[in-house]
User: Fold these one by one.
Assistant:
Number 1:
Amino acid sequence: MRDTRESRLLLVLLIAVAFALITVDIRGGEDSPVDGARQGAATVFGPIESGVSAAVDPVGNAVSAIRDSGQRHDRLAALEKENAALKARLGSDDRSRSRLKQLDKMLKIAGQGQYGIKGAEVIAIGAAQGFSWTITVDVGANDGIKRDMTVLNGEGLVGRVTTVGPNTATVLLASDPDFTVGTRMESGDELGFASGQGDRPLRVELLNGKAEVKKGDRMVTFGSQADRPFVPGVPVGVVSRVDPSGGGLTRTLYVTPYVGFTKLDIVGVVVEAPKKDPRDTVLPPKPKPTPRPTVTVTVTPSAEAPVDGQNQQEQ
């Protein structure tokens, strides 16, 4: 249509009619005079809308499917992770038995020494802290753990807490060269200081250079002032070698620790010290000596040996 005066008047007229119909339709409500026309239009254009909807729906469905697929994938991944964790807990019977045994021994030591402990699991070893002999445990400040608390397990002294986070803590092991703890010999008052030597036995300097010590003697922690960092009576180890006394002021011992520092799993942080020194009550029972079998030799005369009377007759 050419842009003429008549066409412009027609466009204005059509717009005016459209507004008039809209006004009549709104005021009429359900009894609108244009309702029949609307239904007719729906009849004519309905199939077209359905066709367009059918053409568009697969795209929308595909988008929804992709979104749901991602959600299902995340859910499946979560379920697979939960199942793997469950299998790890239930499927490893040997490890479960081992951990229960460790826990039982640790609780026994805590009961004998009257130590209030917070159980923990070792979740990392020293790589994160450099070259030190350390472990990380899964308890921290939120569990009441503080710096310079004693750490033990079912065997004896593990170390002391050095760094505390909200939910984890770092423990310096007794085997670390920077570790030192006061010690006391079993059944006596000979005091000394034990230092770590890595994977070698602990080195102990007794304050009494003339102390009578022998291989197989045992020692426990002496304890610190206010029980920090060490509570008394925790088993340390067994004397494996004694250096000859050279007339010095101290005497050097080498002690094999009770704890295997390369296979730690369940440990306990002492959060409450005993009311009194348990002395030697926490030490394990001494091994009974194995009796040596005795051999008795009985000599019997041979049946072929000649009798003295017969020898005389033959002569």
Note: DSSP finds four helices and twelve strands in the chain.
Number 2:
Amino acid sequence: MTKVDLIPGAWSGRDDGPGPGHLRWHSAMSAFHADIAPGATVLVGFRSDEGVRRNRGRPGAARGPTALRHALASMALAAPIRVFDAGDVAVAVGHLEDGQRRLGDVVAGLLDAGHFVAVLGGGHEVAYGSYLGLSTSAAGTSGARLGVLNLDAHFDLRDDPAPNSGTPFRQMADAEAERGRLLNYAVLGIAQPSNTASLFTRAVSLGVRYLLDDDCGTANLPAVESFVDEFLRTADLVHLTIDLDVLPASIAPGVSAPAAFGVPLEVVQRVCDIVARSGKLALLDIAELNPKLDFDNRTARTAARLIHRVVTWRAPQAEA
């Protein structure tokens, strides 16, 4: 596995006593090493503001991985899990493309070792780095059908000359086209006022399936579930990417572009449950947490709950 830039620090948090009855994330967490048996969950941080900066957004997402770890640390676990921290890939100013490539190398190595990978962003440019890892892994090159499910207020299909936080799925589409394939991409939570007509046109031309945020309320949950189930039938390996700006600003204020409307947390959580239980989820990434803007750590706590939900709702992991 390609080395990360920053090795993981020690996790700490609330401690109510020893034993499985008092288990929390910090007490289950260990630093990753190459001899870990397959089937573990491995966290990788992606410290990047560069994509947001290029997209003229509000910087601060590079601090996201640290805030996510802090929010996860004291969460209680109902049962033991095998979870490890691989450290962080750090993106220097002006070097986003190199950072995405290196993240891809780290993710591919972890997937090839048989682990489930959760990438902690970072701006949504993290999604392209995650994709590079899955698409170049042994599983991704085996002929399995790759599907990308994005929970997001934006298509992120911009045709900008330099990669940024608004281009990752257009980059994926270009990469898939080079392989003679159409990107299997679905988005849930699109905000019409946040996406130009040209982006909707581009989405249609690329065969992107999407649901507007207007159609993702709790009253629409059966339709949302059907949308996700239909997507899952088209994929063997799923990359779930969550841009936290899909949530209402009252729940997720600490993002580059807070949602004026958003998708209720109950709906986002249900989508995570369905995908986690499908047996097809290979990779999760969380994007756009900006701790500088996060009132009362509200966004970090919500994001940590989603990570916790996905990891603990997946099929039982192999014993150590």
Note: The chain has ten helices and nine strands.
Number 3:
Amino acid sequence: MAVQKLPLAKALNESLRTALENDPKVVVMGLDVGKLGGVFRITDGLQKDFGEDRVVDTPLAESGIVGTAIGLALRGYRPVVEIQFDGFVFPAYDQIVTQLAKMRARSLGTVKMPVVIRIPYGGGIGAVEHHSESPESLFAHVAGLKVVTPANSSDAYWMLQQAIRSDDPVIFFEPKRRYWDKGEVDTEALPGELHRARVAREGTDLTLVAYGPMVKTCLEAAAAAAEEGKSVEVVDLRSISPLDFDTIQTSVEKTGRLVVVHEAPVFFGSGAEIAARITERCFYHLEAPVLRVGGYHAPYPPARLEEEYLPGLDRVLDAVDRSLAY
């Protein structure tokens, strides 16, 4: 068994290395991905080993980067694009929404679009606005895009492999505050389905649903609740679009309560869709209304205020208590 304990960032690096080795059509491209190895060093060493034609330092022009990736995909390549920070993706939003997401439908399925767009997202690193945001719901709303995010090193390695092999475009959100968290990675394992949620912790009294950076926070909340005799189940979504409602439903039918947690603002966030759909599916099983915990509907604050802005352990536990009080 090729099991290693790796930081999430290193697991992504190993995944890209494996993809480049296995498929000569895989191309990594983005600002500073080559000589620098990316600002978070996710692509460290790849240009040295695979050359400047496979790991391409691009100009600072996100629209041009994604537009070039679309052209490469049309010629049979599998481009993996890095957007340096979450807030930098918006110059490329037009290309992603009007071209990348629509090409397969526009061609009645005859044109494949195997493009992965990697986006470090979320806060917790003391960075300013446009470096700490969570725009995942904007992309989940767009038909034709797959939107996924790993919460641990194993998923980082395998989900990126699966995203690169996909013939549909995948927006791959990387929880930057978890880049340095270590976890076991079995590079010879059989990965689960890319768009299937996983139960990260079993419980019977309440279900916490989260993804990406908030999974660890919810596991910590479940452990703290257990000390008070409360049994909390934690579901890691892994995929935001498509969304695995079946796994959530199964959990909620058991626990009768649901709290959805994400860093993105609660207003029009992905938690709203989960709350609405689970209320429809589980109306007669719910013992309390579905509650949501997330960021505020405000621009991302300066670093010294981000702990007040981001949902933390106390806000998650407060929602757990409120739900159990019904």
Note: The CA atoms of residues 88 and 304 lie 22 Å apart.
Number 4:
Amino acid sequence: MDDNEWWGLVERAREVAGDRADDRDAPDDPLPGALTDVLAALEPERIAAFAVTAVQVTDSAYRWPLWNAAHLIEGGCGDDGFMDFRDGLALLGRETFTRAVADPDSLAALPVVVRMGRGERGWIGYESLSAPVTEAYRRVRGETDSLAAAVEAALRERIRPAAPEGESWDAEDDEANRRHLPRLAALFPD
């Protein structure tokens, strides 16, 4: 599955979710269900291809500057948290995702991040893009073992990043954060 098709499917789900597509914190978050429905309309092989492309997309965001931005926004961010952050960032759509990977400080303009900076509810992260993929596949095939095998086989042929790319700095260093992520540091001063 190419990137354009992948992002098109995400955008279709975002359209169904409407004005609630940008915040994963709500208990009745409509986006995961919308994505499941969009994917369940595909052939099983396309659902598996979506899962493989999802890994490629989120791997492209495996960057220190973005991880440090996630650390500021979420008040800390370990390995699992950064995986969730990247999955949720992908659900924000291609434009937001691409801009954030190139300039993590751009996240300061997102309404959900502004709310979080004020101490209000909100969350960018999403526990796993594999959840809607697995549910869609289960609806179509009645099982998920063949999905796991197909994704594993496809990923075996790919080179995945061993470590984050980009410039790293101590995410606890306020001065470094102000220098590298000035708008986010202003929103999250502590």
Note: Residues 44-59 form the longest helix (16 residues).
